[in-house]
């Protein structure tokens, strides 16, 4: 807890550590003689259910809750009932708020309930869903018509403004002690803003979650206005803590709707299915579709809805389609439904609203649910019903294995294929969002609220170091990285600036033994770090590029190439970090070349591309969706060892016919020596000194001067490289191929010719370019450091 937070309060209820600092809980448990093994926070796998309370925790918190309630009631005044205002805006939030409202109503000795209804509840086009609140026997204190029709972005803003105009009068009359606000709708933002400005305490339900579109921004904005938080998952709790919310005011309770969901499936359901879908429908043989507009990309979401309806028509199963919510774009979605005749199609039932109790039964026994509603990724998991989540509206939500994501739902065939994969399956039931005991926890949490505590909320900021940004020397420093290139011949170290400028470079021959090599790396790095001060560079870290297979997470070279002897299972990170007191990153030279292109070269801003290094060996790196691919055993992108001939020349890796055996500098040198030994290399215009070593450069020179045999070898090498590139295109389908290294310019035309001749027509349009980076190995090593320090995910 930050130093700026309020005095620590006692823990709240029987939830799983309930936002209480774990050190406090361990001390408490030790004092009571309770074992601590079950008391600490439990780490979760992604998608795993939260660790709900152990038996010891339940007993302890139950006793503590009674004591806490007694203390709070004494402070608040024994006869004072907590006046709770619950405001509901639409059918979705009412399904979460209703269980809490029933719980509050059942304890009149503690609570006084006022209900405000606003938003789409009061609109006929959306089912006049306020009636279900009346049917649940709740007295509605106030009805506020706050929706400005238009269903576009401007109408949403005007609706918020209208609610802000109307709410103050209502809240002045009610004078609630606390207002309960749910979720991430624009109506809820108006409620939270009004309550906060009128000094009314706010309890926010389902804060800390992550989804897509504008909802994230609204949800987090409400979090900052709210005084108390009820979250549904451990991840959401951690997000709230990371947002500097007071740990003691966060309750991990689970989703209130799960209290009803987990006891609902055994009820009579066939009559409900028949009522909404027809007498001839069987369980697991129909679809529930619920899709809303995406307010940040309305045009695309309408197109996606059209494709979804086309796919459902082709799939030819009975389908219940619910009308979208009131967000901008909903009117256009309804027009699409009517244009396709959905309301009159024999396979479809289009409805504005289904009561939540009945909706539970419908999704519990459906063959599949499709759309982009949070209900699909949250509540439906409780039944194991297959779900197809379309688009980005729920990106970031925790989901069970029953959810199949189609984030780029841009074709009817893609959606239809998802239906074929999911329809009729049965998955394990998921309890990610709750264990069925949320409401009791929330009620105890409400009873523990001390109205005498200061209303002004406090934020628990982490401790920060003294700000030195106004120091002129600090401002003038150039943020830089130390880049190390461990080559087969030379060892190079450079100071590289944030803009990719090589400020200073050092080169030494690479020693043959492990001890000498590591000693030289340390010596050169220390020298460069010292020199950085004189050239006004602030070193942020060290990046190392090396050949072979590397574990970048641990900074260990697992297996090196034959070019660098005695270099296996070597921890480079620890000794260099210890010596320089700087963070150290290590990666394969091919990956580093790809990183250099991504940050400084042709790959900047490109989502999917491949880099091929054509030098002493052949290597490369693959960038997919802006991120580098390492593979499960850090062996991805060993592009030089793609086999293009079963009986080709032997490669250094021990195989035959690899690209590297044809097109690497070593391979060309081998062929040049063979021609030279047969006296077939030198032609008119060429000369060699007696002691001069034959190299690939001599072969290239001979080919340029008309040596047909040398030219044939280069053509074969270019063809082999081209075939390898074709294999890459057919495997990862990049939009760009970058040839890097000293041989790149000699191969680029041959590679393009092979692609044009051998590749599938769908990938022939790929761009093949020669890198314009002077030193990709050093720039890539620097990128390892600079990408991290500029908060790029790596």
Can you describe this structure?
With 794 residues, the chain is of the alpha/beta class. The protein folds into 4 domains: 177 residues, 3-Layer(aba) Sandwich (Rossmann fold), CATH 3.40.50; 159 residues, Glycogen Phosphorylase B (Rossmann fold, 3-Layer(aba) Sandwich); 141 residues, Nucleotidyltransferase, domain 5; 170 residues, Nucleotidyltransferase, domain 5 (2-Layer Sandwich), CATH 3.30.420.40. 39% of the residues lie in helices and 17% in strands. A hairpin with a 2-residue loop joins strand 23 and strand 24. The longest helix has 25 residues. The two termini are 29 Å apart.
**Roughly what fraction of the amino acids lie in strands?**
15-25%
Q: Give the strand line-up of the largest sheet.
A: 3-2-1-4-5-6-7
Report the CATH architecture of the largest domain.
Answer: 3-Layer(aba) Sandwich
Shape: elongated
In the CATH hierarchy, what is the superfamily of the largest domain? Glycogen Phosphorylase B
CATH class of the largest domain: Alpha Beta
Binding site for an N-acyl-D-mannosamine: 549, 561, 589, 638, 641, 660
Subcellular location: Cytoplasm, Cytosol
Pfam family, one: ROK
GO biological process, one term: UDP-N-acetylglucosamine metabolic process
Keywords summarizing the entry:
794 residues; alpha/beta; Rossmann fold; Nucleotidyltransferase, domain 5; seven-stranded parallel β-sheet
